[in-house]
Amino acid sequence: METQTALAIPDEDNCITVYVSTQLPEITQNVVADLLGIPYHNVRIISRRVGGGFGGKGMKGTHAACACALAAFKLRRPVRMYLDRKTDMIMAGGRHPMKAKYSVGFKSDGTLTALHVDLGINAGIAPDLSPLIPAYTIASLKKYNWGALAFDIKLCKTNMSSKSVVRAPGDVQGSFIAEAIIEHVASVLGSDTNVVRRKNLHSIESLTKFYSDSAGDAPTYSLVDIFDKLASSPEYQSRAEAVERFNGGSRWKKRGISCVPITYEVTLRPTPGKVSILNDGSIAVEVGGVEIGQGLYTKVKQMTAFGLGELCPDADKLLDKVRVIQADSLSIIQGGFTGGSTTSESSCEAVRQACTVLVKRLKPIKEGLEAKSGAPVPWSTLIAQANMASVNLSAHAFWTPDPAFVKYINYGAAVSEVEIDVLTGGTTILRSDLVYDCGQSLNPAVDLGQVRSQPISTSTCYC
């Protein structure tokens, strides 16, 4: 993970260009302009890559950008800054510590009837993106059918560094609180924890009640099947028995195995995309999202090649002609922010729509050339002919989600086997198995990397 960094270069006409490692180019542009007292169009924010984000290059990136911009604006000289690791860690803040008190009602068979949670969230000295955390936490907590659910959440201002979003912000804490309550109920009843979990997974009716805006249709609700695939498998049972045998013969080291379901609610956001075909047939693409290691640019390049593929007789080679341009706040506006696990799909859809416009413009020319020659038209020939005919070879799209489908839920479950040294407290994750319903993947290789890295990233909260 690279630390926060920025380079500010003053320009003529009271303008300034800032190269900054940020997930929020548009917001950074606004903050810098407000600081300098100049119009937004006088500030250009360029973010080529982030060098590792996970939320830490969100609002925190504006500090470095503002410091460099102010110095460069006053001195009329380029100013560059990068933070040393210690300063960066102090400023980053990390995840939000939480304190939860709960009252839970349940029946003798393990069925939950009611839950009340009082939650205090340590936001640190300044808000940052803390106002988003309560909703994310509750969305994760609702993965079980609690019957009746009530909660009281307070964001607390403290004398600590400002906390920020970190991968799956609030969702990690909410899931932990839910599992702690389930474990407590199972312990009181003397029941198997998985039995209590399984009994209180949502039906489609209760899911619609708890997630009214994002539940979707019954065929899309896959959590129960996923959980059963893991928790009810013969392999899980044999591993659980092996854990019991190990604990019976080991005094200072103990093992445990657990199966945990996951729901992750996400929100789609309006996203711009621009596709431009140059005279030599090469293609420049711009999107509102920023590449933070999630494979955004790879997916956007593939979507561009797919969207224009029907115009090219050798569509497989079209991918090599595509270049995704760095995020530029003056070149493409309303880019929003990169985060929340939906930037890639939104950007790809915006690019697909832009490609559709270009196909509509170019298809008549392609058909006319093919009618004359009786053979497939090379891509370079098509573009040259379109350029001579003064066809607009650049298309912009601004994709907005269907109001009825702004939110949806991701489902998954994981089985983890863990060993703890009771003398030192040292914890070792021996094995984890994860099943995730990814829907229709845009790039399975990229998405598999994201799925594999998530448990590693979030498990550090508890080790």
TrEMBL record:
Species per Swiss-Prot/TrEMBL record: Aegilops tauschii subsp. strangulata
Residues annotated as domain Aldehyde oxidase/xanthine dehydrogenase first molybdopterin binding: 1-201
InterPro entries in alphabetical order: Ald_Oxase/xanthine_DH-like, AldOxase/xan_DH_MoCoBD1, AldOxase/xan_DH_MoCoBD2, AldOxase/xan_DH_Mopterin-bd_sf
Family (UniProt): Belongs to the xanthine dehydrogenase family.
Species classification: Eukaryota, Viridiplantae, Streptophyta, Embryophyta, Tracheophyta
Origin superkingdom: Eukaryota
MF-aspect GO terms: iron ion binding; oxidoreductase activity
Occurrences of domain Aldehyde oxidase/xanthine dehydrogenase second molybdopterin binding (ranges): 230-452
Transmembrane stretches, start-end: none
Protein name: Uncharacterized protein
A family per Pfam: MoCoBD_2
